[in-house]
Design goal:
21% strand, methyltransferase, eight-stranded mixed sheet, 296 residues, alpha/beta, S-adenosyl-L-methionine, 30% helix, Rossmann fold, 10345_t:CDS:1, two-stranded antiparallel sheet, SAM-dependent_MTases_sf, transferase
């Protein structure tokens, strides 16, 4: 599967006994979905800040990649149900999501949790509160990985409807924008009208706009100020010098801990080369948080 790099991200404080740690398995692979990107940090921080709103909920993460936000949601309550999805043909990414789920299950409320995928029996899916599924954006029917099959399974096997949709950096490639918003619109219109889509994206061009697609798909959007988070996002900002020092060291300060074993140090060096943007610099400042819902 390629060289892995285990990272752990902590939210909250040990001092008040209110802390969650999510462990992510990154892979040395050209696929963008195998890394934790800055947009995922921001979305996860917002979920933690608003964690009471995410307890006892059913959550669907689109383009989950390494699934940091979705896994954090899963950890918030033993009654949460979570579906972690990525493109159906991203088999390496989907397998890596399952591996990350298995890393975290021992630290969830119910350590007997299991992770299920499409090929499991209905009984196995019903018992599991964490699903990993392939999902083709913009495909609503006539395929095992289509949206209608997934929504039917959620309603039939869990007896629930989606409360929250999540996506970090899903608005990366303009050719995907309509498929993403069409998928969101379908879920809200035909499955769960009260649900909301929370998404973070990093602005890469001021000329890009999704407003005309929001109008087309009967959606509306509001921007959430990151000042609401009351969290020091600078803890995710690593300059080039700091990153080079961390490549050769296991010592990390901050509230967010990145734990590495000696076996991962060489992987970290290669990781830095293949993914130079992980020296975040000011990238956090170019990230926006949006809430998308059905137009009223």
């Amino acid at each position: 599967m390629g060289t892995s790099n285990i990272k752990s991200f902590s939210f909250g404080s040990k001092d008040d006994g209110n802390e969650r740690t999510i462990t992510i398995n990154e892979l040395l692979d050209p696929s963008y979905g195998c890394y934790v990107w800055p947009s995922a940090f921001v979305l996860a921080e917002y979920i933690w800040y608003k964690r009471r709103d995410f307890q006892g909920k059913a959550v669907l993460e689109l383009g989950a990649g390494t699934s940091l936000p979705g896994l954090l949601c899963t950890s918030l309550s033993p009654t949460n149900h979570t579906v972690l999805t990525d493109r159906s043909n991203f088999l390496l990414v989907l397998q890596n999501i399952k591996n990350s789920v298995l890393l975290n299950i021992p630290f969830f409320h119910d350590t007997t949790d299991t992770v299920s995928d499409y090929n499991d029996s209905e009984n196995e899916k019903r018992k599991s509160r964490i699903w990993v599924r392939g999902l083709t954006w913009g495909e609503f029917a006539n395929d095992k990985d289509c949206l209608s099959v997934l929504l039917d399974d959620i309603e039939t096997l869990w007896g629930r409807k989606i409360d929250w949709l999540l996506g970090s950096d899903t608005f990366y490639d303009p050719k995907d924008f309509e498929d993403i918003l069409g998928t969101i619109s379908y879920i809200l219109a035909y499955h769960s009208p009260e649900a909301k889509f929370l998404t973070t994206y990093q602005e890469r061009s001021s000329k890009r706009s999704i407003q005309y697609l929001l109008d087309k798909w009967n959606l509306e959007c509001r921007q959430i100020s990151l000042s609401e988070l009351r969290v020091d996002l600078e803890k995710y900002t690593i300059d080039d010098d700091t990153q080079q020092n961390q490549i050769g060291s296991n010592d990390v300060s901050d509230d967010t801990h990145i734990d590495q074993t000696k076996d991962n140090l060489e992987s970290k060096k290669h990781h830095s080369q293949i993914n130079p943007s992980m020296a975040y610099g000011n990238s956090i400042e170019s990230i926006f948080l949006l809430e998308i819902s059905l137009k009223q």
